[in-house]
Amino acid sequence: MEVYGLLASGYGDWPIIGQIAWLLGQIMNGIYNVMSAIGIENIGICIIIFTVIVYSLMIPLTIKQQKYSKMSAVMQPEIQKIQKKYEGKKDQASMLKQQDEMKMVYEKYGTSMSGGCLPLLIQMPILFALYPVVYNIPRYVSGVRKVYEPVVEAIMATDGWQSIMETIGSASPVLMNPDSYDYSKASTIVNVLYKFQDATWGQLIDQIPSISDIAHSTMDQVTHLNSFIGINIGEAPITLLTNAFHNRSFTGIILAVIIPILAGLTQFISVKLTSAQQPSTGNSQDNPMAASMKTMTYTMPLFSVFIGFTMPAGMGLYWAASAVVRCVQQLAINKYLSKKSVEDIIKENQKKAQKKREKKGTSAKEINRMALTSTRNVGNTSRQQTGLTDAEKEEKLRQTQQRAMNAKPGSLTAKANLVSRYNSGLATETPADESSSEDKKETKNKSKRKK
Predict the structure, then answer these.
(1) Model pTM?
(2) Distance between the two ends of the chain, CA-based, in angstroms?
C-alpha cells in the first residue's frame, strides 16, 4: 500500500501530469464547492460526479479509439499476410519493403499506424492525473483542507510535534515514510491526517493531549465528509474487513467487501462490452490483439479487486464509478458504431486524410497521382551502389539534359548537341523528303549530259 500511495501522490508532481492533475483538481474543487453550497458535503458523491464529468469529456477520444479497433480487426489479416511474407528477413531492404507494404494497407483504409496509439497517448496522462486528485483530496479541494487546518495549527504549536507525527505517519495505516515526505510542511501534515483512522486519532491524542477537543471536532467533520453508504472511504477496505471480523459484525463485512467486489464486477462487464465490439478475426494465436483482449478480460477485474481492498475505499469507489461510466459509454458507442458499416468508416477516414493533405497544399488530382505512383512502385524501389533510387536517378538525368541544352557556344557539350541534332534530323527525315532529294540529283545529272 505504501508503494501505491507514494506513486499516486507522486504523480501530482510529474511534468505534464502534474499540470493536468492541477486542472482536474480545479474541477474537483468546483464540484465540492457547488455541492457544499446546496448543503451536500460528501467526498464520495463528489468523486462519482467528478468521474462522470472527466470520462464524458474523453468520449470523442474513446469513439476514435473504438473506430480504430474496428478497422484494425479488418486490416489484421492483410497485416499478418505481409508479416508472414517477410518473416525471418532482417536485412534493411526487406524491412523497408515490409514497412512500405504495411503503410499501403493503412492508407487503403484511410488510417495510419499511429491511429490507435494517439487517442491512448492523450488519455494516459489524464488517467494518471486522476489518481493523485482522488487519492489526495485535501491537496486539491480547499474546503476539505480547511477542515484540517485548525488541528494542524494546534499540532505544530506543540513541542516535538514533528517527531510525533513522523512516528505515527510512518506506521500503518498512513505509511508515509519521512524519507519521502517533508513533515516540516503543514500540507504534509494535512495529507497524513487525511489518512487517519479512529485508532490513529486516538494515538495522536495520547501523544498530544492538549489537542483533544479540536481533534474530536475534526474527527466528527471528517467522518461526515467521508461517510458513503455507511463506509468510511478514507480507510482501506481490508482494514474495515479485519475490524469487522474482529467484532464479528456481518454488516461490517458486507460494507467492507462491497466496493472491491463492485470494482471487479463492473471492470469485467466493461472489458466484455469492449471486446464484444471487436469483430472476430479467427484464431487468437495468430491475432495478438484478440489474445490481449482475452487476457485483459480476467486480469483487469482481479487487479481492480486487489486495488479495491488495499487502497483507501475512495480509490475503490472511483475505480468502480469509472467502470460503470465506461460501461454506459460503451453501450452508447456500440449502438452508434453498429449503424456504421466498415465501408462507411473507411470512406470517412479517407475523406479526413484527403482534407489533411489538401490543407498542406496538395490538390486532390496530385494526391491521386501520388497514390497511384506509390502503389505502382511499392517493393520496386531499390538503391544501387550510388545510393540513389530510380526516381532520384531519373531526376539526375533530367537535370543533366537540361544543363546540356544550355551549354555555352563552342564548348564540347554544344558541339555534341549540334551533332546530336544533325543525326536526329537525318533519322527523322521522311520518305517523301528522300524521294525529292533523289529527283533533284537526277535532274542535275541530265543537265550535265545535255551540255
Answers:
(1) 0.68
(2) 126
pLDDT tens for 325-383 read 988 888 888 787 777 766 777 777 777 766 666 666 555 555 454 444 443 444 444 44
Residue count (the chain): 451
What is the CB neighbour count within 10 angstroms for residue 178?
15
CB neighbour list of residue 352: distance below 8 Å, 6 or more residues apart: 110
Quote the domain boundaries for residue 362. Answer: 345-377
Q: How far apart are CA 220 and CA 325, in angstroms?
A: 32
Segment among 306-320, 332-346, 412-426 with least mean pLDDT: 412-426
Residues forming beta bridges with residue 232, ordered by sequence position: 227
Helix (H) or strand (E) holding 232, with range, is: strand 231-232
Inform me whether the pLDDT recorded for 209 exceeds 50. Answer: yes
User: 172, 200, 225: which is the final residue of a domain?
Assistant: 225
Does 267 map to a domain? no
Rg (CA), the chain: 37
| 119-123, 211-215, 299-303: the lowest-pLDDT one | 119-123
> pLDDT value at position 374?
41
Residue 266, judged by CB atoms within 10 A of its CB (0-12, 13-18, 19+), counts as buried
> Per the domain annotation, does 403 fall within a domain?
no
Residue 213 forms part of a structural domain: yes
Residue 268 CA, distance from chain mean position: 21
Q: ∠ CA 235-238-240 to the nearest 5 degrees? A: 55
| DSSP H or E segment with residue 179 | none
| Residue that has been written with the C-alpha cell 497544399 in this structure | 361
Q: Are 104 and 378 in contact (CB under 8 A)?
A: yes
Would 208 be classed as within a structural domain?
yes
Structural domain tally of the chain?
2
Pick the last residue of a domain from 192, 225, 258: 225
